[in-house]
Design goal:
Length: 261
């Protein structure tokens, strides 16, 4: 890993091994102060400047990971859980981004990439999700989603691997408890607005109500016409009956007159 550093040779590797404490990884070398690095490697001023330039460019990265399910406080078998991974580049300020990596022998500009692997560390190790991250900002957030298939204690391991520098990888162990489906009964929340909607007639009910209203109006209209017709008929019958009653005395007087003659 230390041979990635400018001007490093086997001689400098041996000096780092003999240091107290020994320095054998890139992370250990980056954790030292500039004066400590210069004294340990015994490089010239110009070579030390190149080394410090690389160290400040690589900087320090931190990985944080949490596991949860959306809108739920408990995890149940069958849920789709998510591991939220946050990567922080501590050497960058807010709004800054990382430039091309130190790769003098690479044929073109190479930017830093990270690979996140979420591994189920049970009896049979398997990758449950992975993501490739190419963002170069100060803070990166990625969600690794997977379905919970086993009740009880579950153990996952997150591997964050940098493709630009050897020795910057991270490993985060995660543990969570999953309830069996029949062990935890969830009460589905219902909003007041949704309950009020249940009291409103559906579109079909509204349509059927309008149709029945039209039929009622037609029936009411037919009843009014029948009543008016019946009133006219009764009026004509009463008028005719009145005329017949008035005509009967005249006929009787005519008959009396003929008999007396």
């Amino acid at each position: 890993q230390l041979l990635q550093i400018p001007h490093f040779t086997e001689k400098h590797l041996e000096l780092c091994r003999k240091a107290v404490p020994p320095v054998t990884t890139l992370k250990e070398f980056l954790a030292l102060e500039p004066d400590q690095r210069r004294k340990m490697t015994q490089m010239s001023d110009s070579e030390s400047l190149d080394v410090e330039s690389l160290c400040s460019f690589i900087g320090e990265t931190r990985i944080k990971a949490t596991i949860a399910t959306d809108d739920e406080s408990e995890i149940v078998v069958g849920d789709v859980a998510a591991v939220t991974v946050r990567l922080f580049r501590k050497h960058l300020d807010q709004g800054e981004a990382l430039g091309p990596v130190h790769a003098p022998l690479f044929p073109g500009a190479k930017f830093e990439e990270w690979w996140f692997f979420l591994v189920d560390s049970g009896a049979k190790e398997r990758i449950v999700h992975f993501e490739r991250v190419v963002e170069v900002e100060r803070c990166i957030e990625e969600k690794l989603r997977f379905q919970v298939t086993k009740a009880g204690e579950n153990n996952l391991v997150l591997y964050a691997m940098c493709d630009a520098y050897a020795g910057l990888d991270h490993k985060v162990e995660l543990t969570f408890h999953a309830h069996a489906e029949d062990e935890l009964v969830r009460k589905m929340p219902v909003h007041q607005e949704d309950e009020d909607l249940d009291l409103q007639p559906t579109l079909f009910q509204q349509w059927m109500g309008d149709l029945r209203g039209d039929e009622s109006e037609e029936e009411a209209g037919s009843g009014d016409e029948a009543e008016k017709s019946g009133a006219r008929y009764r009026k004509r019958f009463a008028q005719k009956h009145k005329e017949e009653v008035q005509a009967e005395p005249e006929e009787e007087s005519d008959a009396s007159s003929s008999e007396s003659e």
